[in-house]
Amino acid sequence: MVINTINEEMSFCEYYSQWVDVYKEGAIREVTMKKYKLTQAWLRKLIPDLKLSEFDRVSYQKLINGYAEHHEH
């Protein structure tokens, strides 16, 4: 696991991956970790290049909308 310095040019996907590695790895059950990894895969599909500096209320809502398109009942 390589820990990168968090800066605004880091992608949100990188940040999320690092956060999971640092704060969740070894602290949660395997089934829960699989859910975090599934979320990570969806983030890579929906916002692969979104930088932390670009992450705002509008981009967050677009992310939720994109996710909902594939998960509506």
From TrEMBL:
The entry's keywords: DNA-binding
Residues annotated as transmembrane: none
Entry keyword Translocase: no
Recorded coiled-coil stretches: none
GO molecular function annotation: DNA binding
Protein name, as recorded: Site-specific integrase
Species of provenance: Escherichia coli
